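Subject: Sanity check before I submit

Could someone independently write out the structure tokens for this chain? I want to compare against mine line by line before I put it in a report. The sequence has 337 residues.
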Amino acid sequence: MKFTLKTNFKVNHFIRVLLPLSMKLNTFQKTAIGTVFATIFLIFIGGLVRASGAGLGCPDWPRCFGTWVPPTNLSDLPPQFDPNQFNVVKTWTEYINRLVGVTIGLFIIATFIRSFSYRKTTPSVFYSSGLALALVLFQGWLGGQVVKTGLSEFMITLHMILALILVLTLLYATFKASEHHLSLQITVAQRKKLMSVLIVILTLSVVQIFLGTQVREGIDVIKNAENVIPRSEWVTQTGDIFSIHRTFSWLFVFATIYLFVVIRREKIEGQLKRVGNYIIGLIVLQLVIGIGLNYLDMPRILQIAHLVSFSVLMCFEFLMLLMLGLKSSQSTSALSS
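---
Independent answer below. Compare away.
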């Protein structure tokens, strides 16, 4: 027996909502999608700031060296600041990070304003957009605390996790505004198998976030110590936490293989297959990057790639979870053999 969810929209069109191509989008969808991608770009910029050591490129907040536009030369530095604090590259890297953050804030305000049209028809779009606005305001305040605490490892971790939650909140709002366009044709058994393996992968992802942040915090302590050791020894000095992090990576491998088998054996097609393949590809990419970080002495470019690709991976995992959680009441259901 086959449980079928049908609408009058083609299966692959929601991917076009996530990755806008030729389909017609309303104003809210355009704004929300743009904000999702812009926030992922902000995560990239944040990774660049951390990898380059530019977190204190602006030693004060919300201004930078006491001005709204930071100096470009040491001679322009206000007298109350220590010249040793100034590095033009790090200063402008951090300043650009702040500018991007402000731009994201404006995008999210626009998204929230556009969501008012959904207040009665789809209230979840309105409330999730409002939550995104609250999160970005808190994120801005938290960014100031990161600077004021001198780049506290805990505050940096909280700042990164909140950015990821913000992306997923925006993705949820986008999905809820578009789910009436989605058509899935899967059996109850297929749904259960996909949901089971996805829950395992999501659980492993959350565990890896925690372990990864612990590894990063350990590395930050090591590289900021008075007696700095070579980069090639950073990972080994983090202790057992890195070994645990690496062990869970192998569990990721097994879960990915199982997801691949389920998709092929159950002959999952259309949109679910595409999202599943993205998840598989991104997990493989994570493993390759992790190996590179371990054996290539933690190159900065791989640190950034590790963070951004994992954020995108979480987006696709969350997207598949939303797709599999569609209620039959939203569309016409039928039973067929």
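---
OP: Matches mine. For the report I'm noting this point. Residues 1-17, 19-23, 328-337 have pLDDT under 50 and may be disordered.
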